[in-house]
Amino acid sequence: MTVRVERTFDLAVPPEEVWEFIADPERRASAISVVADYDVDTDRATWYIELPIPLVNRTIPVETEDVERDEPRYVKFVGRASAMRVVGEHEIEPTDDGCRLVNRFLVEGRLPGIERYFKRHLDDELTNLENELREEVGVAS
After folding, report:
1. How many domains does one find in the chain?
2. Using CB atoms within 10 A of its CB, is residue 139 exposed (0-12), middle (13-18) or buried (19+)?
3. What domain range includes position 120?
4. Which of 2, 50, 75, 108 is the most exposed place for a label (fewest CB within 10 A)?
C-alpha cells in the first residue's frame, strides 16, 4: 500500500519568500516531527527518523536528495531507506495576493506499520510544515 497526500496553502507573500523556505532541505527536515536529527549537504540530506511503531525500535536514516528543481517554482525530492521510500513535491503558483504552495507526498513502507503510521499522520506533518513556513515568512494561519 502506498500513502499519498496532497495539501495546498495560500500565502499572502511573494513566491520568492516561500521558495527560500521550501527549497532548503534543512528547513524541510526541521518541520517534520518524526525527524529526530538531520545532516545537510546542499541539495542532499540524511533524515534520522524515529517512528512510534512497535516493530521499528531504531532510528532510521533516510537519504534524501532533490531530483528536480525549477527555481523558483518547483522542487521534488526523494528519500530512500531500507524501511521506506518517500517522494515529496512542492510547487509554487503565483496568485493575485501572493502565492499558492501545492504539496504532494507519497510514502511506500517496506516494514509493517510504516504505511499505516503515515496514513494516520502525514496530514499532521503537512500541518507542521505549513506552520513552520507561515512562521518563517510572518503570515498567520
Report:
1. 1
2. middle
3. 2-137
4. 2
